[in-house]
Write a structure and sequence with these properties.
Order of helices and strands: HHHHH
Largest sheet: none
Number of strands: 0
Helix content: 55-70%
Strand content: under 5%
Oligomer: single chain
Length: about 120
C-alpha cells in the first residue's frame, strides 16, 4: 500500500510571458545583438537582391515584348516589299515601266557574238 499512496508532484510548465520586461531585456542584450547582426545583414542583402532580380526580369520581359513587336513589323515590311518587287519584276510590268524611255521588247532572239581571235 505504501507504493500506491505515493503522490507524484504536479509539474507546472511555467513559461515567461512575452510581455514581461525581463524576457525582452534578455533578448536585447548587447552580446545577442552583436552575435546576430551579420545574419541580419545577410538577410537584408538577400531581400535587396530578390527585389533587384524582380525588377531586372520585369525589364527583360518588357524588352523582349518590344523586340517581338519590332520583329513582326519588320517581317510585314519585308513581305510587303518582296511582293511589290515580285509584281514589278513581271515582264508585263517591266515593259510598261520602260515604254516611256522608248525601249521595246525584242521580237527576235539575240545574236551570239564569237571572238575569232580566241579560237586560234
Amino acid at each position: 500500500m505504501a507504493e500506491a499512496e505515493q503522490i507524484e508532484p504536479v509539474k507546472t510548465n511555467k513559461k515567461p510571458k512575452l510581455n514581461s520586461k525581463g524576457v525582452w531585456m534578455r533578448w536585447m542584450q548587447g552580446q545577442w545583438l552583436i552575435k546576430h547582426v551579420p545574419f541580419a545583414l545577410f538577410l537584408s542583402l538577400l531581400a535587396v537582391l530578390y527585389i533587384a532580380n524582380g525588377h531586372y526580369t520585369d525589364n527583360t520581359i518588357r524588352n523582349i515584348g518590344k523586340a517581338q513587336q519590332e520583329l513582326k513589323q519588320e517581317q510585314y515590311m519585308y513581305k510587303t516589299l518582296k511582293s511589290e518587287v515580285m509584281y514589278r519584276s513581271k515582264e508585263s510590268e517591266l515593259s510598261k515601266a520602260v515604254e516611256p524611255l522608248g525601249l521595246k521588247r525584242l521580237e527576235e532572239p539575240p545574236i551570239n557574238l564569237v571572238d575569232q581571235q580566241k579560237d586560234k
